[in-house]
Amino acid sequence: MRINMPVTNVEVPLNDDTLIVSRTDLKGQITYINKDFVDISGFTEQELIGQPHNIVRHPDMPVEAYVDMWSCLKAGRPWTGYVKNRCKNGDHYWVEANATPLRENGQVVGYMSVRRKADRARIESVEKAYRMFREKRAGGLKISNGEITKAGGTWRDLSLSFKMRAAVAMLFVATLFVGISGLGGISSTNEQLNRLYNDRLVPVQQLVTIASLTADNQAQLLLAMLHDPENRFAGNHDHPIGVHLDVVENNQKLIAEAIVRYEQGIQTDAHTKLAGQFAQARKRYVDEAVLPTVAALREGRFTEADALILQKVNPLHRAVDAASDALVLFQNEGGQKQLEASAQLFSEKKGGIYFALAFSALFAACMVLMLRRAVLPPLQEAMGAFERIAEGDFTSKLNIARNDELGKILQGLQAMQIRQGFSVAENKRTADENLRIKIGLDNVATNVMIADYNHNIIYVNHAVQKMFADAEADIRRDLPGFDAANMLGASIDNFHKSPEHQRQLLDRLTGVHRATVMVGGHTYALT
To answer: Each residue of 422-463: pLDDT tens digit?
Structure first.
């Protein structure tokens, strides 16, 4: 990095209308400067032309600022930033610098810079930050597109199309999340219903089957008692007693199978205890009541069977019913708890789905807001700049930090502003030079008149105006229409009796031509 010394603490103030303009080639060598550049920097035009632009670099400028500037310019982007420049005598001046690549036929042929007076508040802010960079205390700060920002900003540089695709993808993910949450809730509810059916309803059905078969056994034993020969209705039966006893024995097998299936669903100690009590009650009922009664009836011992029914079958059957009712109550209470748990789970899942819907809606709103912030501000910024350009103002401050499609539009607009600023400065320089020439011509003693390619007079100086005014009356004798006060815009043909000859002479003119003209008794020497 070039170090230009010495330096002073004296700042050269810039006026609001100061416009410092320069152009360089691709190597950064100065090829053009305007008068403000010369006046402010203190260098002569000869000292600046052909020199590297860092001839005015101030040592207080951090190298990161210039790295950022050249990175933008070489990438074909304009750059705007605050720069502290050094004058020839060591003084300094702050500018808001706007630089852009200079293109011809689609190729970058150089760089153009237009600098204006910088805002004092921004100078103070930037100067502190630049000092941190020089002293290696910048931490997470960086200089990007002329702005001092925190490290990061990748999202800002992503293309607008990518941002839109990303937003759609994220909305799809959010919608998928809502769908999965809903399906998860339905699945959980379905699982709870299946558990309620398998763990509670099926066992209750099994208990009902056992109770029904047990009650049928009770009825079959009583029907078998009607086959007692001493019963006056015994002769009404058209089937043997074994039919009833076979039903009892078959029911016993079905009950045993149902109990095995029921016991497969036992999961808790409390359930095991109740099932054990039921098994004990049923075992006593079978061993002490059913089997002895069936045996007595098969052997025709009806009196003994009747006693067993009264003393064993009936009371033990009530004990089995009580144990079975305890199991049914256990299943009902368990089912109620499962139902409440299922309702609680459903409520939680419903809340989760509502949350997912709300989150998805909020997320969608955020995406819309992000896209709105990504699209509308730069468009509004560009529209405002175009309106000011239409008014002849090329000084709009544009945010050219972003590098997406809209950012490139702003960058192009900034480049146009810089180019137009250069054109304004160049036109002003040309106008100033022409004005100086005109002032000089106005005040010379020599008579000067200028005509355009159509032979119309576009300029007369004071001397020629006085000369023709003094000789106006004499000239009118030869040229009656001559008017000294209204020569501007008139054709020089009015001074010649044979204008066609003069036209041909002027059209073929390639060098200095001298002639003598006599009009109104006056002889004029023309050059």
So the answer is: 777 677 777 777 778 778 777 887 888 888 878 888 888 888
- Output the 3-class SS for 296-356: HHHCCCHHHHHHHHHHHHHHHHHHHHHHHHHHHHHHHHHHHHHHHHHHHHHHHHHHHHHHH
Instruction: Report the CATH number of the 200-341 domain.
Output: 1.20.120.30
Alpha-carbon distance of 19 to 425, in angstroms, equals: 7
Q: Are 36 and 56 in contact (CB under 8 A)?
A: no
d(CA 328, CA 203): 8
Q: How many helices (H) and strands (E) does the chain have?
A: 16, 11
Contact status, residue 6 vs residue 90, Cβ threshold 8 Å = yes
pLDDT of residue 212 exceeding 90: no
Of 301, 267, 284, give the one whose Cα is nearest residue 214. Answer: 284
Q: Look at residue 22 in the predicted model and tell me its pLDDT.
A: 93
Please give the distance of CA 139 from its chain centroid, rounded to a whole number.
26
- Do the domains 20-152 and 444-526 sit in the same CATH topology, yes or no? yes
Residue of 339, 311, 366, 357 whose CA lies nearest to 181: 357
DSSP single-letter state for residue 234: G
Tell me the C-alpha distance between 203 and 264, whole Å: 10
pLDDT of 87-137, one tens digit each?
999 999 999 998 999 888 889 999 999 999 999 999 999 999 999 999 999
For the chain, the straight-line distance linking the first and the last C-alpha, in angstroms and rounded, comes to: 57
Per-residue pLDDT at 294 exceeds 80 = yes
pLDDT one-digit tens code per residue, 142-154: 998 888 888 765 5
CA 254, distance to chain mean position in Å, is 71
Q: Which CATH superfamily is domain 20-152 in?
A: PAS domain (3.30.450.20)
Please name the residue that has the structure tokens 């670099």. Answer: 57
Domain boundaries, the chain: 20-152, 200-341, 444-526
CB 458 within 8 A of CB 452: yes
Residues in the chain: 527
Residue in this structure with the two tokens 């209750």, named with its chain if needed: 204
Euclidean distance between CA atoms 22 and 55, whole angstroms? 13
Q: Return the DSSP state at 516.
A: E
- Is domain 444-526 in CATH 2.60.120.260, yes or no? no
Tokens of residue 152, six digits: 């990061």
Q: Considering only CA atoms, which of 66, 60, 114 is closest in space to residue 90?
A: 60
